[in-house]
Design goal:
The structure holds 2 protein chains of 2 kinds. Chain A is mostly helical. Chain A has helices at residues 2-35, 48-57, 64-76, 92-127, 132-146, 149-163, 180-206, 209-216, 221-259, 264-273, 277-305, 307-310. Chain A is flat. An 8-stranded mixed sheet of chain B has the order 6-7-8-3-9-10-12-11, with helices on both faces. Chain A binds chain B through residues 3, 208-210, 212-221, 223, 227-228, 231-232, 235, 305-308, 311, 313-315, and chain B through 54, 56, 80, 84-89, 92-93, 95-97, 99-106, 114-115, 118-119, 148, 150, 152-153, 163, 166-167, 170.
Chain lengths: 315, 345
């Protein structure tokens, strides 16, 4: 099928660009490590021979290009090295992979829940523009955007865990119910943002000429909305879902603290506090890769929805 | 029975500032195979009136008074579903800007098929055959390939042809064209006008052609209705309105038409149209009208009959009114017509 190969070409192009971006970021991070003051060994406190030994062990005496090549080679094999201080000698990939599962178990549901609820609330709001439902949703979304997530999280804890005792107040790896509050707290901002965007876009699309033409064809109201309006309104909304997902996944940092969740956010905070440079930079690289992956997914989704992007050109 | 009959149509919009009287008592009819042009400047109510005929007024607009009879049935009393069936099937519409009137994320073939399936009650396969026939009819080459393409792969003129194909796919009895050539360049304009004339000949559809371009009118219309500030000020056959116009507003429109042999600065009608939040008591055009009588400011002129097909709403036509000298261009048009042997009553 002609359309199919075009989609495939588009996706391959996007993946190549993603790999290139990741390489640039890895290089910049490698450069940053070189610029950092001091080394991995504090020469004011340790004998010079010890430091020489340590640096030789990590290959830091080698010329820079050689170090760089080794770094990239290790990256390609998925080896990020070992943590220096947070969990000394533990491979960083292992730290990340064990912690990301915990972070994702609240992050992913929060994204899915937030975007879904946001889309439907936005659609409802746009279709009932100026009516009671629209005004109600608008007030709630303004609250959702302006109230910080930690305030919201604390309120949730107070009422649903402390007062009513419906769910546990703190995370526990054995109790699924303990995930409910963190997921709610995380998705609040996403719900509000997506709702606002979806409402604005759908209202604009509903006022466009092609919706008028679809009506003038005698199509049923529901057909006009679902077949003609929603798809076009989704295009700009998808744009915000990318950064939004990213901010949920990284922004879980605060929520993880409040609910005592042993996730990746905690590791990052600890790594920075104890100047575990290799771990910090590896996490930066990991977050960058995550970001690129999300953008890739968004770009592909774009192409699926909008033929002007998939087929190139267009006005 | 006329295909479409509009009787004393009043349309208002509710706004924060108050009620805007966009259309204030319009009467006209359209017969089978006929082209009626509605002419007027922006805000004269011509688009609003036709959107009411389609039942697609903006949500704050409503028909305040009057009837819109489509083959004798008053559509202002239709339910939502009755309106959906009427739209497209009885009356189809073409819009001004072909760049924005097609859904950018749907293949054009599907957009044409939708109307065919709804109104011709055929299967998908038959609809596809008919859609490809329509693409050929509106002059699109390679229709099978084009069927699978998206709007952004077409030029403006091509898109307007597709919009016409969409409208025709519904098998309408009346086609409303809302300034269909305004957004196109001149050569494409001529092609689209030719296409519309050709289609009318083949299908016998009645056409309402909305425009502010009198040059286009002369080319396509059997009859012309001139609208100003929500009312018809003059209506007649094309010849009558062009060569024997009676209303000073029509004179103004004719005088402000650019022409090859005109000398000096192009004429423009002084002033601006009235604010329809506060419709004037008398003739809405009176404040901009150099021939206005005292009566024009005080009382709405009725439609005076000029011939069996020609009517104009100006007190100048009252037997007791003073005889005035119309502008030179109007005199010239009248003379050129009679010298070519044209006959007007």
């Amino acid at each position: 099928m002609r359309g199919g190969t075009q989609v495939l070409k588009y996706i391959i192009k996007r993946i190549l660009i993603a790999i290139l971006t990741l390489w640039v970021i890895a290089t910049v991070l490698f450069g940053l490590l070189q610029l950092m003051p001091g080394g991995i060994c504090d020469r004011s406190k340790l004998p010079a021979e010890v430091c020489d030994n340590v640096e030789a062990q990590y290959g830091l005496k080698d010329p820079l290009p050689q170090q760089y090549a080794r770094y990239l080679g290790n990256l390609l094999q998925g080896d990020l090295g070992t943590s220096l201080k947070v969990q000394p000698s533990a491979p960083i990939t292992e730290i990340i992979s064990s912690k990301i599962v915990v972070s994702m178990s609240i992050g992913l549901p929060a994204i899915i829940f937030g975007v879904t609820v946001g889309l439907f609330a936005g659609i409802g709001s746009a279709l009932k523009r100026g009516k009671l439902l629209d005004n109600g949703i608008t007030i709630l979304t303004v609250l959702g955007i302006s109230v910080p997530s930690y305030v919201f999280a604390t309120l949730l804890q107070y009422f649903f865990a402390f007062k009513f005792g419906l769910v546990p107040i703190i995370y526990s790896s054995t109790n699924m119910l303990s995930l409910v509050l963190p997921i709610f707290a995380l998705s609040m901002y996403a719900i509000s943002t997506v709702t606002r965007y979806m409402r604005t876009e759908l209202v604009e699309v509903l006022g466009s000429d092609y919706i008028l033409l679809a009506q003038a064809k005698g199509l049923k109201h529901n057909t006009v909305i679902w077949k003609h309006a929603i798809r076009n309104a989704l295009i700009p909304v998808i744009t915000v879902v990318g950064p939004l997902s990213m901010s949920i996944l990284t922004g879980s940092l605060v929520i993880e603290r409040i609910f005592g969740i042993p996730g990746l956010g905690n590791v990052l905070v600890n790594a920075i506090n104890s100047s575990d440079n290799t771990l910090t930079l590896s996490l930066a690289l990991f977050y960058a890769a995550l970001n690129i992956a999300i953008i890739l997914v968004i770009d592909v989704l774009y192409g699926v929805i909008d033929p002007r992007i998939r087929l190139g050109g267009g006005k | 029975m006329a295909l479409l009959e509009v009787k004393d149509l009043h349309i208002s919009f509710k706004t924060n500032a108050g009620e805007v009287h966009a259309v204030r008592g319009v009467n006209f009819e359209l017969n089978k195979g006929e082209t009626l042009a509605i002419v007027g400047e922006s805000g004269s109510g011509k688009s609003v009136a036709t959107r009411a005929i389609m039942g697609i007024l903006a949500s704050n607009g409503y028909v305040k008074h009057g009837e819109i009879l489509v083959e004798g049935k008053d559509i202002t009393k239709f339910s939502k579903t009755e309106l959906e069936d009427m739209r497209g099937g009885e009356i189809a519409m073409i819009f001004q800007d072909p760049m924005t009137s097609l859904n950018p994320t749907m293949k054009i073939g599907k957009q044409i098929m939708e109307g065919i399936i709804k109104h011709q009650k055929v299967s998908k396969e038959e609809a596809k055959v008919k859609a490809i026939e329509l693409l050929t009819l509106v002059g699109i080459t390679d229709p099978e390939l084009r069927f699978e393409q998206y709007p952004h792969q077409f030029s403006g003129g091509m898109r307007q042809r597709i919009v016409i194909a969409i409208a025709l796919g519904c098998n309408p009895k009346v086609l409303i064209a809302d300034e269909p050539t305004t957004a196109l360049d001149v050569t494409i304009q001529a092609q689209i006008l030719e296409l519309m004339k050709d289609i009318q000949k083949k299908t016998g559809v009645g056409v309402i052609f909305i425009t502010h371009d009198l040059g286009v009118v002369a080319n396509v219309a059997d009859r012309v209705a001139v609208m100003y500030a929500g009312r018809l000020v003059e209506i007649g056959t094309s010849n009558e309105v062009f060569y024997n116009s009676q209303h000073p507003y029509t004179w103004g429109l004719l005088a402000s038409m650019p022409s090859m042999d005109a000398e000096g600065e192009l004429f423009s009608i002084p002033g601006t149209p009235p604010n329809l939040l506060f419709p004037p008591k008398g003739d809405a055009f009176a404040p901009r009208n150099q021939w206005a009588l005292q009566l024009d400011f005080e009382q709405q002129p009725p439609m005076f009959q000029v011939s069996s097909t020609h009517f104009a709403a100006t007190w100048l036509l009252h037997p007791a009114a003073p005889k005035v000298q119309p502008p030179a261009i109007v005199v010239r048009l009248r003379e050129s017509f009679s010298s070519e042997g044209g006959v007007l009553d």
